[in-house]
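Q: For a teaching session next week I want to show students how multiple molecules come together into a single three-dimensional assembly. I've collected the sequence lines for a complex. Could you give me the predicted structure tokens for the whole thing so I can convert them for display?
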Amino acid sequence: DQQVKQNSPSLSVQEGRISILNCDYTNSMFDYFLWYKKYPAEGPTFLISISSIKDKNEDGRFTVFLNKSAKHLSLHIVPSQPGDSAVYFCAASVDDYGKLTFGQGTILTVHP
Amino acid sequence: DSGVTQTPKHLITATGQRVTLRCSPRSGDLSVYWYQQSLDQGLQFLIQYYNGEERAKGNILERFSAQQFPDLHSELNLSSLELGDSALYFCASSVRGQGGDNEQFFGPGTRLTVL
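A: Of course. Below is the structure for the complete assembly, covering every listed component.
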């Protein structure tokens, strides 16, 4: 039972344009959501998070949107840069527990 | 650099053997998490320790065990290894053991290959 799903295995974007990565979840108990970026042979790097009491959180070029009714979140990267090319994972947790449930990841490629 | 260290970086061993993976959390972090990333399963939560005590368990096999020591470093012990245990094992740490605003910071991982 995959509680966090990233339905797009890959995304290709031109440098300077917007990258939009999507994530859906099924567990209504999730109330904290995170995005991680991962390069090959490295551990995931925390990017941005959002609590379920918010619907938007921004940090520089990264914005995460949360639609609780649709159980959907998205990560917007504007403008996209070649250095953003990596695998992006969304993750979710239940407030009472620390463990993260991860999606399968989306490979983002930003072309110069 | 996340501040989380893991050793060894690579480990090659044979079926039936036992190995120990080590993790040092970021300074000040009390909680340690272990995750397994295999090719077909993605990142899967194994177990969490908070300030020396087990806090949560995921899909961890009985052949696997972990502990967190008084200095807060943690070890993951994998025994009776099988080919299917080959994976990347990540350790993560966070300040608290629960609650929102509790981002986890990941180490570089240990790549285990069982031959």
